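Sample 3 of the quickstart, ligand iron/sulfur cluster:
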Amino acid sequence: MAGSYMGIPREEIPWFPVIEEDLCTACGNCLEFCSNGVFSLDDVVVKVVQPYNCVVGCDICAKDCPTEAIQFPEKKALVPKLRQLREKYSHSNLYKRQKVES
Ligand code: SF4
Ligand code: SF4
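Result:
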């Protein structure tokens, strides 16, 4: 499902949750909440198994975690990062188009 976002390979975008295992009580809220398969129950521990399935810019499950165990990067760093990556990939797409056309 990772694919791309605004023409940027999803794996290049540093946006996904991280669980602080010491704080996690394995209550399962995040598992139930996220329909994108980002989380999974591994034995008795909840883990992030598909980080790039996380919707870019979404952090709603962190607000639903009773122990604040789910962390996301700072949102304000996301916009400049996306701008930088869009620039990078629009250049590489242009280069590819020019190669095909020549
Ligand atoms: S909601 Fe928080 S405490 Fe509950 S399983 Fe997820 S990370 Fe752990
Ligand atoms: S922020 Fe949204 S998409 Fe990302 S893991 Fe949480 S619920 Fe899933």
